[in-house]
Records
---
Amino acid sequence: MEDKGNQSDKQKEEKRVSGLVNNLLLPLLAVLTGLLAGAVIIAITNVDALTAWGHFFQSPLKALSATWSAVATAYSALFLGAIGNPRAIVSAFQTYFATGQTDTLYKAIYPFTESLVTATPYIFAGLAVALGFRGGLFNIGAEGQFYVGALGSCYIGYSITTLPWFIHLPLALLGGALAGAIWGAIPGYLKAKFGAHEVVTTIMMNYVAMLLTSWLLEGPMKASGYRPVTPTIQTTAELPRFFPDPLRFNWGFFLGLAAAAFVYWFLFKTTLGFEIRAVGSNPDAAKYAGMSVVKNFVLVMALSGALAGLAGSAVVLGPDLWIGEGFSGGYGFDSIALALLGNSHPVGVVLAALLFGILRFGATSMQSLAGIPIDIISVIQSLIIIFVAAPEIIRWLYRLRNIRVEQTVLTRGWG
Amino acid sequence: MTIILELRSITKAFPGVLANDHIDLQLEEGGILALLGENGAGKTTLMNILYGLYKPDEGEILIRGQKVEIHGPNDAIAHGIGMVHQHFMLIPVMTVTENVMLGVEPTRSGIILDKSKVAARIREISEQYNLEVEPDAYVKDLPVGIQQRVEIIKVLYREADILILDEPTAVLTPQEVESLFSILKTLIAKGKSIIFITHKLKEVMAIADRITVLRAGRTVGTVLPKEVNPEKLATMMVGREVNLVVHKNPPRPKDIALEVKELFVRDERKNLTVNGISFDVHKGEVLGIAGVQGNGQTELVYALTGLLPFESGEIHLLGKNMHRPTPRQILERGVAHVPEDRQKHGLVMSFPIYDNLVLCNYYLPPFAKGASLQQRVIISNGDNLIKQFDVRTPSGQVAVSTLSGGNQQKVIVAREFSRPIQLLIASQPTRGLDVGSIEYIHSRIIEKRDAGTAVLVVSSELDEIMALSDRIAVMYRGQIMEIVEASKASKEYVGLLMAGIHPSEAQKAAAEAEQGTEVERVF
């Protein structure tokens, strides 16, 4: 009897450990490994380091130090650009508390707040894809939903001029969510009604959305002037900013966190969320239990689209204030990777979004300060995702083999 | 007699499980050794070691007294070991000859396949061992029993002396089982040696020369059939005394709960698989639907539970005519369904036990208040059911996928039986379960019947049908051959109906069989 109790405790413990490994350790190691692999790429693309290696036999130390300095310069530029200089931040706060002087403070916190601004659409779009995954659907269409969401918010934002902000702003957000929801619901409906695979239809919907945007920027939504851009939105539709220019940190970030909390509550604490997860994990059992699988396809895609649409709204109503060509920068596509990294869990998505925000924004200063091309960040992001998607590599690299973990199935392939 | 194969102290550990713990086993030349054990006792692991699919952590394998190393199926075949898997490894669109030669294709001048040579050899083997098979027939056209013969021929073609048969009777009708047994007897008469893996006690008693019983990875003992009886074997297998007979009182049937009239159903590939079926089930009785797997039972149950729309006919559930019912409408009318495929329909494997226990009523109070799930109620409900239905698990929080098959089935039974129900539809309720779990689930089903629930049991296991049913409907090719009172039906008679023999002829044949006349084999 006692023996049995011990064993079950041990099993519980093993279960807990393996859960922890799966949810935290593996993504963290994946990020670390991605950064290390990125360092190798930075080193072998650095001219100074390469030259030094050419003279390796004359002065081996020089080769190593040149490599080290190349990598260190790059990553410290990334860190300074994305987070800021910690010492400067501390002293700026001290000055502020002592004298009330804000100039240095704003300057010091600019990098970090701007990283958060970059992370904001990632949070929304990541939640969108994660929700799809939970419902068993592979929403590749976040990019398109992002565009139409932005268009919807933007139109409401600039065309209505007589509303107070507390009506205008929610209306603009709602417009974005609704546009995204419709864009997402179409593939959902096609799947439910005709069995069209959502991967195919959402990819096609992306092209439609992008070309629709181009046309609208050239025509109906074009601001007066030469360039294909929309008019700037009214101040009543803006997401309020916390600091004066150039700091663009705004309400959007906290709306993103609220959205994450909502998605968490919705998925894990409501009957609808229960259905979505059941349909996502085993549609046959869901049908057996009396749930409507096809209804869930439409519902999940609409909600997912609404969240991706809000990502677009957060960009246009927050930092950008208008839409120009190529304005997304691939948020929708990155968010697929991001949802994978976050294990399709709202908390994981927020953490992954912060990482992506930091990498993306830090990359700009890495380019200007250290002369490292911005694309290296895309490479690092891709490497991280490869390591997340193939956890066996990480297990093998770090000798995590003996810990057994069941496979979490994100989607069930085609069909 | 000489020992042709000996396993000494074989040990194999998987993370967290000791699958084989110093197992010893001896196979006599020209004998049939039955390897008996519950699911998870380590039978399959042991045979996979013998076939070279796993490497043992410890222990040795001796063939004819010589120590051998087996690194893969090819080594095993070279040592004369052949395996007939539970799930046949045949390619349906190929002929018998093509299937047999697969992997060892003989050629003429290096490139041209020499099929006629193989076909001739197959005829030779067929004749030698009484295995009638047409070499040019396509495998997809053959009944399951014959497909199994093809597997055996495959093994013999590769000149195996030691045949391992993994649960060979799971897919066969009673008549096919008998003909398999006579084949096995021919094989040993010609000097082959056989390991027969099973968890069915009666088969073991009928065919084995010696019986080795495994439990929880250990050898419990090796016995001769004449020294034991099924009860004793069951005790060895399970480790405690087991009730093999379902004790039940005579039924007290009341009103009709389910009435089916002229039902036609097409399966997902649009084949008409249920072909005009009518029957009824009363409250307080068990109607058993017997039949070999694949005679329309699956689709019948799907239609009754709303998983598949039916073509025509009527389903009256508790007096209400159900037109195009959805699964939820059926559930809400008080129907419980223990599905045939527990992992496909019965459970969401990645969900915790708690959530699986409310899979059908999560949206109803007390489990939900409006849209919000009442986690605390769901957990206390789960803890109660886990205790009540004896689900063996460290906690209700773990995913069902971590449970054994028997415990997974208990989760389903707990969920379905704990709802207020009028009709219970149980499809293959004990498939793949061990003796202990079967005993438990059978007694629960009878309990429900005695409480006045109408019960429909669908099973391809004739023993199960005979044990549970008050009336038996036999299905063959989408139709009901006959509905008989269980108390008046012999097992032989029902078996013949399952094979599609017309009732009048079946009656005659069954009567003859009872008088000891040799019954002409169906296949």
Note: Confidence is low (pLDDT under 50) at residues 516-523 of chain B.
---
Amino acid sequence: MSVITPLGPAVKAMGEEDIRPEQKARAGRPRRKSLWTRLKQDRSLLLMTLPVVVLLIVFAYVPMLGNVVAFQEYSPYVGIPGSPFVGFDNFSRLLQDPAFWHALGNTLTITAFQLVFFFPLPILLAILLNSLMQPWLRTLIQGIVFLPHFFSWVIIVTVFQQILGGAGLISQQLRDIGAEPLNIMTNPDTFVLLLTSQTIWRDAGWGIVVFLAALASIDPSQYEAAAVDGASGWRRMWHITLPALRPVIILLLILRLGDALSVGFEQLILQRDAVGAEAAEVLDTFVYYSGVVSGDFSYGAAAGLLKGIISLILVLAANKVAHMFGEAGVYKK
Amino acid sequence: MNAFEGVSDLKTSRRGFLGLLGFAVITPVLASCTTAAGSGGGAGGGPIGIPKGVLPNYVPVEYVAPDIPGIDGSTPGFLEWPKLVKSVDKVPGVGGSYTAMTPTYGNVVPGLSDSKYLQQVNEEIGAKFDFRFTDNNAYPDKLQAIFASAKDVPDFVTIAEHNIPARFDQALPGLFQDMGEYLSGEKVEKYPNLANIPTNAWKSCVFEGKLYGLPYPSDRMSGSSFYRKDLFDEMGITELPKNADEFFDLTVEITDEKAGRWAGNDLSETAKLIYAVPPKWKRESGKLVHKYESDEYRGYLEFTAKLFAAGVIHPDAVAGNSGENKARFESGKVLLTYDGYSGWIGSHVRTVPTTPTYNQQPLPWFVHDGSAPRFFVSNPAKIITFVKKQDDPARMDEILDLLNYIAAPFGTTEQALLQNGFEGVHWEADPETGAPVKTELGLKEVASTYQWLVRPPVTQNAPQYPDVVTDYCNFMADSMQYGVEPEFYGMQILEPVRLASLSQPFNDLESDIVRGRKSLDDLDAAVKTWKSSGGDELREFYAGYLDV
């Protein structure tokens, strides 16, 4: 299984070029090169990947071993070696826990909602921005929509509360004219809307980066040719812009599906009291409250592990679907 | 759009979805290979109660007589700056270096490298203390993290009673020093300032039958409902409520949404006081009744829900923002708030410079039906410091000398130094009274630090604010007649980890019921679940601690 990153095909091509013509001629027929030769041949590339591999091992793979506590009755004071193994006990408790199913249900609702109402926005925004002619205006708008990404959730929730809250700017204006104040920040029924608006305000601008890069790679002569042939603006977008963006869109969609069960943590904890756990409990907060807060680490780890497995299955399935439609997806065999 | 409809639709679809993944099939298989569910990790093991000879002897010393003496355990107050006496005649430290994890409550305290106060005090006491300040809100998470790796545990760990982590009984013997070896019985008399700490406070430091902790003696009244007397006077409100109905009417009267003024912050804690909700258990005809099952708890929830529904709670508090509670009260956006009783002085000191007329007062005690007022007194030490096991016995000797220095009571040079810092650097003497007035640097650097590790018996000493100290001490002295000791008063009982998480659902439920998202029927259902999933077992567990 070779991973095709945006760099992927280029890497392969370089590797092939590296084989010198005389080497090919001498061999006569394709000969299996020894491991050493191959290592030597790709040494610069291997060296370049080394730091990332080390980071992955230290920060992803080694901690992953800690997942073994999901099969234990873990106590931090006696450590992993001292904690008794309980098999699938924690998982069976988990699957019988209505709170877990409730958290999973909320997570999926939020993720489905955001897939429809958040995911397409950066694409639209990128296309819109790309069509602006004045570079200074484009940079200005880009800067403005980028900025909220760097705010922490505490600030964003506070800003929303100050403006839309029951004692906020709009509510006080409404009271002045004798109207009912807003009840957006504490209404569990519309919470998913609120969450999505906050996410859009914070991250839609940041999400356009990749799409802008993809748009920049479209050959302008294609537009010129289409314009000469009499294609309208809409037709040019439909037949040139969107097809050019398709691989990137699909790639990001698959990656998003892998993250489908992560719908935020601070954002939800901060607003938990406002709308109640019924609306704000998602898998990550469930892991926090049932595992960390209650000191039942094994139970939390089991929930986290299950979440990881479901995410993996989602990515694999989405990638498969992408292949069926003839797209590269995240990787290919 | 109704999101709940969306959720219920999803319930059916998610079963299909998971069935696809095969989990529905795995479930029964998993269930069949279940071993003893949730066993192990049980607390207990140690003897129940406090074995004889564990508690240190009590040898009181008094350097200055308080101007307002304590009555029935109320906090004594000092109105004048006394002539200081030296209580420790040697430099306690011999050059050791120590780390300590201590809390901050919303304030930012500069660390060792940036603080003249810490550097100079360290020099004075002959030991190097490096404090790792952690905000109280993040404390439980941080504790879990440092306990997971023994080598990261600082030499001193300060833990508030409510932050004691699950499975702490397993942490104690391996990580922390049994202080009884050095302080039990008459051994403490070698350290006069430690011997001056009352027995009740030491009781709170006994875990599993051993003296593991050092006390931070607390006011006998932990919290109170405060009102803005200055603003009440301005509005012409002189009658204070004497029952729940009168309180409700008052909140409606003082709320003026258009003016951006609401009656209170989240008044749940106030309602708990009005309904005299027991901290955990009460006894009814000899049987233990948990607070969740009690009428008091039910009454408090119903009443709080009524307050929320009437729109008298500040919308930001409704939205769950409690971090700004003090700010809203001090700025007059709300006129009622619940706060720790000792938070009174801090609010006063903070607000008076900008609002000279500022006057907060505790609401006189009353209960919902207007009958005889009562409240549950606070544990004698709500904050406890644990000392990490030391390899070197000489270090233990140094630690004990240092603790004796830190525990010096009001009226000693040691206490004055720790509380105020250095003259000319952190404070200047008031020309009239001689009391220290903090300089800008003093205000920035001098905060409770060393005294988290062990504190002398609690006193109220802020001679700069004699009026507040007088009100503070008099109100508490007067309150003592209503004080009731709750069941298991002052005892440290570590619940088995499996039962410790039983209360988790109630945190969310309380917030749901008071905001009208759930009803009292949901409370009944939750109590039923609580009983069957371990509540009755917890009752049995606690029954073992009765009458010890």
Note: Residues 1-25 of chain A have pLDDT under 50 and may be disordered.
